[in-house]
Specification:
Number of strands: 14
Largest sheet: 7 strands, parallel
Order of helices and strands: EHEEEHHEEHEEHEEHHEEHEEHHHHH
Number of helices: 13
Length: 351
Amino acid sequence: MRVLVTGHEGYIGVVLTDVFARAGHEVVGLDAGWYRGCTFGAEPAAVESLSLDLRDVEPRHLEGFDAVVHLAAISNDPLADLDPETTYDVNHRASVRLARLAKRAGVGRFVFSSSCSLYGTADPGVLVDEDAPMRPITPYGESKVLVERDVSALADDHFSPVFLRNATVYGVSPRLRLDLVVNNLAGFAFTTGEVLVMSDGTPWRPLVHIEDVCRAFLAVVEAPRAAVHDEAFNVGRSEENHQVSELADIVARAQPGSRVVYAPGGGPDPRTYRVDFSKLSRALPDLRMTWAVEAGVEELVSAYAREGLSMNDVTGPRYTRIRRIQELKAAGRLDGALRWDRARAQARAMP
């Protein structure tokens, strides 16, 4: 199939495009380039791509595709909280507009990268499934709810949307993120010897490895329409629900000589939930989610050692989304609405 992947230069996108290409699909990327140059290790393989803000997509950009995999977004709670109006503009309105244009262009399948964060907070004694109440407590989580609602309304006999509610992702990527809980804990352990926990450790998080996420997207794109049409699926493994304190202990065991440290004043995080992932395995029984956090942490520590991860990497803008965007804004390269300014052409080489 010919597949358009939005956000193909991001943390998940660079891994996903490779997975799709190796499966024999023709992949075209679309990305605004906010994180271009923020590379961990070798540069990702180049693919045919459009350097384009999601808000500027035109009908002609979507012609000839069999499927759209929509990853592009303002990508986490701290960044989304900086300017909620811009967050809703990009994550909600531009996403729904993209789906409408895709439908008009004859795209058959539209796979939206949603998030388990839309559950917000839930009784940790209950595994929440796809029918559980949505209680988002941040603009990021709310934007996912709104996109699912509005894109689902577009579903018909010719346009088949699917919503993948990813657990919290971890693992190595050429566009590494260190603002994700497992990657961050392992980063501090490797560079300082301290597994620094910013909360009291009690919140529950569902976890999923980046390779398992990419395999899930591939399986959904390739699946029979009847198995996935206008459905939402939690993406992860039910065995991979962990409290943050447990994650810290796993990291400490993987990094010799490290110890768990709780930051002063860290209280309970209101975002806490445990998730049931059985619906996806029932719908796609051949899909195998294989990674466990223990193996993922070992992979991360090994990669950090191989690439010489430093404390500056952990605390700087290269691998942390909000700091990268703040850096670009402070340099006058992005405006308040996160659009490139006129000087972008002269500064594209900035690492």
